[in-house]
């Protein structure tokens, strides 16, 4: 095997040369891409002169690795007529992909539909101990919203309930998992919820395969809430669980597209599932997205009840560019291009993840303005 080392180029300062290509003697159309340590990254086949969109894509995908970045000379080596253009196209991507990690992000709220707003408000306030934070009625659009949570929207994750005039029930589907509420005494909370007519679907006790005490209750619309026994926390509304068909793909998507961290991964082979806790800060201090993979299950029905999760950002435009880039690699798609919502002027962008779960990125400043307008 002929190994071709590429000299360090200094004309593109931000691109450190950490790459080299090894070219197979017998397959001149096949290139094996290695990182500086010599570990194999990928194989690139059939690089046609003057057509580098494929190599651009491959490199764009891998040059986000901390240990590997593209060099202009590498592209020259490929004898690709569009080397400079390709480098230009790829360099900003590497920088762009750093943005979600630098951005000011947190989970803001989960949006879902309920058949009777007052009934849910009563269950959440009297049963769970949430506060009703905001209420708005939009008669011209025939819907109302209620925002509930354990603390102010400026700092806490909340639920945004939507009531569509005249619609009294929804299909929750199989993919939506649950919300979780941390409480110091699951047994006590279960008794309170039972007394309020709550449907306890799993009695308190240690989780199968683990030690934490949990229980499950369904709210009046059938949304599951896991109750988890924990010490005091600033964020009792601690999890949003969604089922996914390929956990590694989802972890990568939420890391790259949304800048989340993989906080914890638990595999319970005896119960045939794996969980990944994804979020922006400590799992016990903030709300996390719990992604569940059930062995062998690659698709779920989604129903029409759960809608989306909202996440804050300082720049919806830049964030949408990142999402767009990541969807090309991992799947999913932008469903609303970045920009202000007519009438409200809050800048948002929304998109689907590779499983079709929707997220909305909301401009931080606009979000705060909206809250203060509502006061
Ligand atoms: N098959 C389950 C996998 C996830 C799971 O089992 N989660 C735990 C909580 S982390 C659970 O619900 N355990 C039920 C129990 O302990 O009774 C699902 O899709 O919901």
From TrEMBL:
* Molecular function GO terms recorded: lactoylglutathione lyase activity; metal ion binding
Name the PROSITE patterns for this protein.
VOC
Q: Where is the VOC domain?
A: 106-230, 236-364
Name the pathway it acts in: Secondary metabolite metabolism; methylglyoxal degradation; (R)-lactate from methylglyoxal: step 1/2
Q: Which cofactor does it need?
A: Zn(2+)
Q: Which domain of life is it from?
A: Eukaryota
Per the record, its GO cellular-component terms are: cytoplasm
Query: Which family would the database say this protein is a member of?
Result: Belongs to the glyoxalase I family.
Designated name of the protein: lactoylglutathione lyase
